[in-house]
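Run log // design_07
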């Protein structure tokens, strides 16, 4: 059996990762096109994983991900603040400390809603699949 292990690249690494883990006996399937399958294989190979291992990792990561992506939300909040700050500056208006405080309060209140709206723009199908 050891001679077979040495002939299969990476088998020792895969066996070590599964040591002590509960056996997997369920499947989660998805139908894909040939083009999509090639794309998935490339992504898995880029991480040095089999397609099934890579797909499982991606599915579980997404399933466990909190509903709001904090980094994305803060990026949208930064954009909101900059957009609100640039307009008066471009118009030559004076920006007071009180105005900035008010703008920051508004951004804190609205950033989650704005982030959801921006994300919807990227996740809604475009009809070009």
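design_07 sequence
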């Amino acid at each position: 059996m050891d001679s077979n292990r040495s002939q299969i690249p990476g088998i020792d690494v895969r066996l070590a990762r599964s040591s002590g883990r509960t056996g997997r006996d369920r499947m989660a399937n998805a139908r894909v096109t040939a083009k999509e399958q090639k794309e998935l294989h490339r992504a898995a190979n880029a991480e040095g994983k089999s397609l099934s291992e890579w797909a499982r990792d991606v599915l579980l990561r997404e399933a466990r991900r909190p509903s709001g992506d904090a980094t994305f939300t803060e990026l949208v909040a930064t954009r909101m603040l900059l957009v609100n700050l640039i307009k008066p500056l471009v118009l030559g208006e004076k920006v007071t400390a009180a105005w900035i405080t008010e703008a920051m309060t508004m951004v804190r209140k609205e950033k989650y809603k704005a982030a959801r709206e921006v994300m919807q723009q990227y996740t809604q199908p475009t009809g070009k699949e």
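Residues 27 and 113 are 36 Å apart (CA to CA).
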